[in-house]
Queue: 3 jobs
Job 1
Amino acid sequence: MAELISGLTTSHVPAIGAAIDLGKTQDPYWQPVFSGFEFTKQWIGGQKVDVVILVYNDHATAFSLELIPTFALGCAAEFQPADEGWGPRPVPVVKGHPELAAHLAQSLILDEFDLTIVNRMDVDHGLTVPLSLVYGQPAAWPCKVIPLAVNVIQYPPPTARRCYQLGKAIGRAVASYPEPLRVMVWGTGGMSHQLQGRRAGLINQAFDNRFFDLLVSDPEALTSITPLEFLRESGSEGIELVMWLIMRGALNARVRQVHRFYHVPASNTALGHLILDNRA
Amino acid sequence: MRQPQPYDDIPGTTVFDAERARQGYHLNQFCMSLMNAGNRAAFKASEAKYLQGWPMTEAQRHAVLARDWNGMIALGGNIYFLSKLFSSDGKSFQHVAAIMTGSSQEAYAQMMLEGGRSPDGNRSLAEWKDRG
């Protein structure tokens, strides 16, 4: 049977992708950001991950206002890095896992999560920056990736509780897949940040650190955070943190924290990164 | 007519809800069109003419031409769509964030280096009532 071995979260700030692509990771501004991923790059090498279910949001790239799926599961064999207006990032094509994705789609819909199935989709920095942070700059990504795009652009995004419950359903679906795959779930985006209006630049370190603590030890407590509280406390874009709850819901109640990293600022954002082992 | 929402109380923040998405639909889709290099060239050749091809309000067109970012957001623009416009201008998120907050880019970048804008004093309109 497939095994969900671990979960990981990270912010997906586009300027981080630009820093990697332009060779600026050792610049004084960026070096502290990338230092938090040195452990991760070592650790991931020993994990032999077959598939990553990568929860992220599209930033008006694959989905304009013409079509706004709340949860969109990428079921294709491959996904091209998107041209976000300045040419695609120079990163490998993202290879999917259509068999596991099809199993997930069928299991989740029967489990009453009404997903959108996507068979053609370019993937933007929301998905490729986390891959670059964890795997660096390989010629090909060393694992298959199943993108799960979540709408957090047009309010309201799915609630914290709904995301956590979807994660639980993903955990059940992975456990019922007959092939012996080693699977990770990544939740991306966040932490606190606001990119718009006179309150732009908001960072709430107390909120972020409490979110980290509870995500490890008592994630149920986070499911009562309302959309209003996310907006007010973590900024209008900090509400992306609901995606971390999909990751956490997929794991067991008890997990072991392997690595935790927090740094302000990465451009306009509080960068957070966490690795959780599912075999506590 | 717009119904009051609980998040209207968050100062300096415009939540991109379904009503604003409707109001800003063509403004945002215009921005989306700038993902295409040919469209970017046409827009740069004549911004006013290009905008006439989109069924936007005159106020929206004026805000685009003036690069009035807060104005575009007030008229239904969303920051991720507006990023296509400022990227076409060669500007960064941080450049535009500084303008929206009324800071110089240097002062804004320094605020971020010092830990960002605190939530304290920035949670509710009541806390901003003495500000201009």
Note: Residues 92-132 of chain B form one domain.
Job 2
Amino acid sequence: MPVPSTTPEPEERTGSPAAAVPERPIQLSAGDFSLHYGTQPALKSVSLGIPAYSVTAIIGPSGCGKSTLLRSFNRMNDLIPGVRTTGRLRFQNLDVLSPSTDVVELRRRVGMVFQRPNPFPKTIFENVAFGLRMLGLKNRGELEARVEESLRRAALWDEVRDRLERSALQLSGGQQQRLCIARCLAVEPEVILMDEPASALDPAATARIEELILDLKSRYTLVVVTHNMQQAARISDRTAFMLNGKLIEFDETARVFTSPTEKLTEDYITGRFG
Amino acid sequence: MTGAAWPAAVLPRPALAKTGKRDATGPLLSGLTGLAALLIALMVLVIMGNIVFFGWRAVTWEFLAASPREGMTEGGIFPAIFGTVALVVLMVVALIPFGVGAAIYLNEYARPDAWFTRAVRFSVANLAGVPSIVFGLFGLGFFIQFVGRGMDRALGLDVVWGQPSLMWAALTLALLNLPVVIVTAEEALRSVPREMREASMALGATRWQTIRSVLLPQAMPGILTGAILSVSRGAGEVAPIMFTGAAYFLPYLPTSPTDQFMELGYHIFVMSTQSPDVEATKPLLYGTVLALLLLTFLLNLTAILLRARMRARLAGRT
């Protein structure tokens, strides 16, 4: 796999020793990427590279553009009228922003989990099978096998194995969110984007989601937006700090939280604003 | 914080005078509005009571199952019941796909500010304001004389399509009810949460797959509401069908969409205005009105039960 031309610039800026984190191929990268909602700038010249099989956290105060950046990687912002972009986004060697990019295929390979659990008002089984059915899979046996596998990977199988035909809306909030993760895993994505996946959940359910995220990174590349700095510190290998649409700092999580290079990062993580 | 305390102990409360005034107008207004509400209930009660009181004796098994006899002073109304049900079913079959299709276009594909979208919305709003007799004349002029005759000529037939029939009457009624269905279906599609669209798209569903597998199932109860409203209206409208297919009297039941038919609303109109002996038909007239009300109620009840079941399933209560 060719390494994208946009090698993670922040690496050089912060001068972190590359040996601390083993070299992994870059899965997602942004190069000089800017985004406007109408005339309102939301992202200003963001450049970063997200390595495979790791958890990358994006932190920053509300409105800093962290969700916008996340939703740019699978082109979910296409659904919002009046969005303009400049710069480059790459997924492996695919040009994400190119008009010729198959968005449906991109979204299958770069899955997404949202802030509020959003299961469909269908059965648990049909929720997980949804993406597979959209791909045209009809064979009942194969559907069942893949649904079970996905629910197992999302650590939900033991809780729902006896009630797959019940409505997904009968599950608790935390279970619903794990169901949404299972639904996303079913179509075999390579990257999973998570937009504050635990912010609507209680502490116990949050802990289970965090555990699951750590489990999943052996198979997937995860990018997690969070406003909870402790959470970022617990789950992520690398942390990006954003402010007012700009990427301020992007480095190994331990370094960002203990000895940030930028004054703004330090002010934010020590609670001086945000 | 004594400074912020209510100074009532020191100052007289100027609000008291106003409060007294409001107390006087309050009961008056609630009385007046209550009276209006009561009047409505009374009117419905009088109408229904009158129909049931004079009609229930006429509604016998024979009345529901037999054809009219002796210049409609005897016999029953079965052909009219049959015709009404056939008309309403055909209307819904034509109306729902067409109306929901238009709603999907307006809500999912159309750019809201495009001139075409605005023109369509403007047309829908105006269609809703057209008097029903105009629909009847339009059906006669467009469906029968233009489309029907045209089909006959093109196919080299005698007169098959170019005459009043069940099909043209159903299409005319469908046109009349189109605005209701488009508006309710659009409302139903709009009320599906954005999260559902995003969830579907993020899983790699195409736009059409999202519409078919996520939006339409969730909008179905709302679409049924539109169908219910159109059935209620369709079963009772006389003006749109009197030129396009309803018959004064037929000795046979319609067996094809090109046949004419008898219909309850039109039958009531005929009995009350065209009968040679209005006094003699009166009991049957009451019975027919009661039968029409019961039929409409029954059709609505079916749809309402279906909708309740769908809602329960969508809410996860099954």
Note: Chain A touches chain B at residues 74, 76, 79, 104-105, 107-108, 111-112, 114, 116, 118-122, 130-131, 133-135, 166-170, 180, 183-184, 187 (CB under 8 Å).
Job 3
Amino acid sequence: MRARRYWVLYVMLVPALVYLAVYKYAPMYGIVVAFKDYSLGEGIVASPWVHPWYGHFSELFGSPYFGQLLRNTFLLSIYKIVWGTALPLVLALLLNECRLTWMRRWVQTLSYMPHFLSWVIIFGITGAFLSESTGLVNRWLEQLTGHTVGFLTSTDWFRSVLVGTEVWKDMGWGAIIYLAAMVGIDPSRYEVARVDGANRLRQIWHITLPGIRNVIILLLVLRLGHVLEAGFEQVYIFYNLQVYPVADILDTWVFRTGLENLNFSLAAAAGLFKSIIGLVLILAANRIAKRWDGQLW
Amino acid sequence: MVTLVRTRIKPRAGTRGTTRISSREDRIANGIVYLALIVVAVVCVFPLLFVVAASITPYGEVLRNGGYIVIPRSITFDAYRELLSDPAIPRALSVTVFITVVGTALNMLLTTLMAYPLSRKDLPGRSAVLLIALFTTVFGAGMIPTYLIVKATGLLDTVWAMIVPGAVSVFNVLIMKTFFEGIPEELVDAARIDGAGELRILLQVLLPLSVPVMLTLGLFYGVSHWNEFFQAILYVRDQDLLPLQVVVRNLLARSQATENADAVLPLVTVQMAAVVVAAIPMIAVYPFVQKHFQKGVLLGSVKG
């Protein structure tokens, strides 16, 4: 009877396990193409091994462009992590300090609307404001200064556009978790502080922020674990030839090298490099995060 | 390995400071907070309103004003008519609707079937299955090897290439599993004593109690399908199978090539109409589902 009970449960697991086996684990076998000279005609198994086995990796690491890719990936990620932590935190503090329930609810609902928009939509919206010929901001700039700025085509501005649009998209969404942590703070601590004469800013500094310190650190550490994920879809949709020097990241390069230039093996080697570094970073991040695994988590 | 939040949102209205007589300093602080929040709301909403306004501005007014203004004096829906007269757009819409409906249904089915057994702490081998699932969240084979497997399984250039390779999200399985684990065991035990099998327990006891998490995950999956872009550019070359986001992106790119030409203005209007069409379903749906968010979003927000 008991065995039959479990048997049903195992059957339920089969479809998802088959999915994982075929689309998550079989590709791990496909990694061997990084050590072969893959050709579409011969397939994964029949393609010849490359000599020496690290041939594609030495080509990768020897290329000066690879350093630039890494630099772009790291810089973009770090900027996104810094701004993507600070601004949602500020929004959460504002919402937490807001005494009008209806206002808090409205602003919160509106603020996570952009999270549901695709990067294509956000690219369209960005163009409406920042396009050099038709954008609203550039029309204002032209009237005020007589000059326009190629926000989407200039290497000086492009990263800021990427960071800014990402923060716009996920600011409200990111605030949710900080806000929830703030709600968990014991209200009597604020009472005590008020009796002691602390104003609102001092209450934020001495009670709210320390109260959610663990959450902030934990989220930061987890995001650092994903530092090599600089946002393929966003960059791919936004970038153009003029801004490659600052915008080309590991993932976009892998995509172009593999699927546009059909150099599958070299692209797979870069992908494997990224996956392994990513694995190490995520495991390290999780280990560190466990230390802050305090009362909330 | 994956940390989930188990905070519950308490009803927070007037938790502090409501009965106190507010000082002058406090009123100033409140004023600053309200002002800042209004700015945030405007920053979130204005860009979309501007795009909507641009999409309904007549060409004549664009010429007269030298560009788009925030509130047009007259409106026209010509851009939408022109947009939908291009057969590529209705076709792309039908592809997107198909992958959203079928994809989300498949996602929810597989996610539920995986989450329920994993929520049963007495199941032998549970931790091994969990480990197998969790490993895929920290180590991925990468774009190219995954492409080769999608190719090998014959999905390239089919609509299924945008559905099957993402059939289960392990993160969402964990969210649902955590939710199931929070349901009192006595209910399941009572049903079992009444002779209900596992499938019946899942369907008749757990699912009716799981509406919030089902709606939340349904929204997550649905949004990701409606916004499908990545798998389409990887796996689909056939123009007739491109989803809406890719077609809109191609339409948006058309201006960039000719950005400095004078005749782009009507094209920009059509582009703005396309952006609105691609955005509206998500904006229309999320406020209704967000009531049920609270738990689900908190569980999922770590994944970002």
Note: The radius of gyration of chain A is 24 Å.
